[in-house]
Amino acid sequence: MTTTAASTRPSMWAHQAWSLAGVVSLCIAATVGAVLLNTDGYHVASLFAIIAAAGASIGFFRRAWRIHFEVERELERMERKYGEVYGRAGISIWEEDWSAVGDAIARLRERGVTDIAAWFDVRPEEARALHAQVMITGVNRYTVGLMRAHSEAQLIGSLAQILPGSIASFGRWLAAFARGDTVYVGESVIQRCDGEPLDCFVTAALPKETGDFREIIVSVIEITGYKRDQARLAEARDEIARAQRIATVGALTASIAHEINSPLAAVSSNAAACRRWLDRPAPDLAEAKDAVGAVIADVERVCAVIERTRGYLQKADRAQERRDLKALIRESLELVDREADSHEVCISLVLADDLGEIVCDPVRLQQAFVNLMINAIQAMGASDRERRLMIAAARGEGLFRITVEDTGPGIAAEDLRRIFEPFYSTRTGGMGMGLSICRTAIEAHGGTLSARSTLGMGTCFEIRLPDPLT
């Protein structure tokens, strides 16, 4: 705005000079005419001279005033145009007078101070006093709305009074001035007129000469929503990373525990047997030797599990086997028979005749079957209704479908959405890892695990596994 007006003024002064020239011409003509009238024989010539001079003067005046009015109208139009652009811009624009800061920096340099930022760091009172001398001289209309002010006048005055929180970034401004930066860029938090904090991105072109500090244009872009979205995104990423770590550790731990539990139990049993053979009045060394051999074999099995775990961590290919799906399900049921009996649960098994073979990691897949069955049995532990565990498996459309359904109390909708999260359990004392491990195992085979439930009626888990043989 100021630059446009200033650039138009020289034309206006030139046209006013034309007007002055017209007046001078008229005066000269009148003087010449008067002299000529007092001279004998020149009356007619004098009259013509006066009329000519007067006509020329009037022409000069008319032209000067016409151009003057046209320039003024054009200037007003340009001021209105750029004033509208300035006011409607979707960026908050502040006009600020930092001349006190420019003068203070110049005085310090004259005294030989080179690190101006450090000078004010150890003199916070001087910095605050200087901050109070920075004046806001104008803002655009967008700023009035952004700051929730009643009018522009509410935002005019000392920077320390209008934006007291700006003292926190004042040191960065001083450092930028001291370094001779051409542009200031930074984030800041200011308070609206109603007290609400506002995250913003601030930029300004910084002057080189001390006299230019009187008018610094500062642009402010609100980034409150952006910062909030970034915080949510960071939180979501952290939560996802945490869940992945928990799921990985949980699945790995459960897998190790499952696989080494059996050989360790055998180690204990065979070691106890060896001791009994040796404790006899006549030690049976042959039997003791066989028991020690069995212990060694079981320890080797444990070592194989550890080696397999290392392969898992190193992304080694997993051993896939062709296994009869019916046999896997039946073996899983055998492992939970005792649990079912202790909870007085009846088991119903419906397996299609054409199930055939599945290519899988049998230990992981069986682990998922067992976990689902154990969960279903324990869910029916306190039920007064008939306790029935129904397992069905069918094959078709390139998929194996296995369902594990119970007649327990069911799962509430809000819990159903979270049951596969690590460490989330609906049972008191539950670790909340079983279903997470199940889903990890099923998804490792390219399948899916889902659940549906009705309160008071029971819950059904459905496993879908791809059938690569079709």
Automatic annotation (TrEMBL):
EC class: transferase
Transmembrane segments annotated in the record for this chain: 17-36, 42-61
InterPro entries per UniProt: HATPase_C_sf, HATPase_dom, His_kinase_dom, HisK_dim/P_dom, HisK_dim/P_sf, Sig_transdc_His_kin-like_C
The protein's Enzyme Commission number: 2.7.13.3
GO molecular function, a single term: ATP binding
Record keywords, A-Z: ATP-binding, Kinase, Membrane, Nucleotide-binding, Phosphoprotein, Transferase, Transmembrane, Transmembrane helix, Two-component regulatory system
Pfam family, one: HisKA
Histidine kinase domain: residues covered: 255-469
PROSITE patterns the UniProt entry points to: HIS_KIN (PS50109)
Reactions performed catalytically: ATP + protein L-histidine = ADP + protein N-phospho-L-histidine
PANTHER family in the record: PEROXIDE STRESS-ACTIVATED HISTIDINE KINASE MAK3, SENSOR HISTIDINE KINASE
Protein name, UniProt field: histidine kinase
Organism in which the protein naturally occurs: Novosphingobium anseongense
